[in-house]
Structure formats: C-alpha cells, structure tokens
Amino acid sequence: MTTIPFYKMQASGNDFIVIDHREPFIPDVKAFAKKVCVRQFSVGADGVLLVEKSSQADFKMRIINADGSEAEMCGNGSRCVVLFARDVLNLRVPLTMETLGGLVSGDIQDGWIKVKLVEPKNYRAAIALGISGSKKIVSFVDTMVPHVVHFTDHLNEFPVREVGRAIRNHKEFAPRGTNVNFVQVLGPNQISVRTYERGVEDETLACGTGVTASSVVSAIEHQVKSPVHVTTRGGEVIKVYFDLVDGRPTNVHLEGQAHFSFKGELNV
C-alpha cells in the first residue's frame, strides 16, 4: 500500500485533489484519478491536479479528469495551483505554468488570483444542431479546451444535463467532444453560466475556461463589455478581462478566488 499526501482545493465550487508530483511516484495517474475522484468511495473531486517539473516554466500542471481523461487546461484548477504553488511549494508569484494547452501565467493580489490564458481560437457562430428532435443554435470557441456556448433566457430551468450531454457527444464536435455552456445575459457586463463538463460528464458548479468562452462569445454576439462578471452555479462571481480587436478576443485574463478545503493522505 502506498501513502499519497494531497490537498483538497476548490475554486467557485470546482473541486480538485492537488498533489506535488515533481518527483513522480504515481505509476498510473489516470487509473488513480478514476479511483480517488469517486465521491462515495474516496475523497471525491472533479479532477486531480498534478504539479510536475517543467523545462520551460516554473512547473507543469497536469489535469486528470474524474473519468481518467487528461484535459489540456483548467481555468479554475489553474487558480488553485497558483495558490498551492505559493503557499505549499513556497514559489514566488507571479509565476508561469506549462499546460497541454500552452503557457499560462498567474499572480495573486489581495487574495484574488488572476491567470493569463492563451488567446481563444477557432470561433464559429450559428452552428445548427439537431438535439432530440429540436434545433439548437450554438457557437463554438477553443479557450485552450473546446467549448460550445448556447444562450437562453431561462437558465435556472434549463435541462443542462440532458442537452449538455447530447451536445458534448454530438458528431459535429467529434472526436474530441466539447464542453457545453448555457448562458444568460443579465446586463452590459454581467452574465450567468451553467456548464456541462467533458471528462466529468455532468454539470459542475463552475468551469474557468467555460466562463471565459461564455464571456468572449457574449462580447462578440451580445456586446457584453469587459470585465465580464460571471455568476456560476457555485455562487461565486468570476471576472473575465479581455480586449476585443476586430472581433477577436486578445489579452484574456481570468480572475477569482481559490481555497484550501483540507489536506490528508490517501492509502492506495
């Protein structure tokens, strides 16, 4: 039996098991994540975040989803890892981290964690999807991971799990699949978002790259202004900053808080 020290962290209700893996000791991280993320039988989490060595940044962040798949990036996870790096690993901020989606920088000011993301790409609008006998009009953008955005005036009552699952697995987005965000515009710089997450295969309380995608698409299609204040299912407000140049978002930052829940040891 192996004893693995870990920290449980959350950002806007998106929760993670965070592990210092700079000296690798978990032989099969995907099988490990599938086991320990199950809420009824282990710690439970939306995913595992591994801090590993990097030759091009202060460290590398690996994101292993609850289903064992590896994600390119996680916005809320990145905020957790910035706080973990400062308070547990004693690294100085600002700092940079390597991800599968590219290099991300992060800083902490007055308890707020701000990360700079890679510029969104592959924006597509007015995609018509056949879902359960009806047509949904959605947009797509890649904010280091693939995201669909669908606008609704009735977000609280919207069947996020059912429609989200259908869009996530739609042939239009094969083979990668996609995350799915349902968005209601509340004001000139305010939106509310619910997200069905690929890899978790359920609605989560928040998704950092999802609120980023929702914010930039809201700016392009509904003239929402930066900084966008995003209310998530977890109740916290996340801010998304960006410049819109010729209809293209650039200089994108995600800002919010992150919290330690507890630390412990896993016996696996």
Task: Please tally the helical runs, counting DSSP H or I stretches of 4 or more residues.
Answer: 4
The count of domains is: 2
CATH superfamily of the largest domain: Diaminopimelate Epimerase, Chain A, domain 1
* CATH architecture grouping of the largest domain: Roll
| Largest sheet descriptor | 18 strands, mixed
Distance between the termini: 6 Å
What is the third-level CATH name, the topology of the largest domain? Diaminopimelate Epimerase, Chain A, domain 1
Mean pLDDT: 96
Number of strands: 18
User: Any low-confidence stretches, pLDDT <50, length ≥5?
Assistant: none
Q: Any idea what the shape is?
A: globular
Structural class: alpha+beta
**Helicity range:** 10-25%
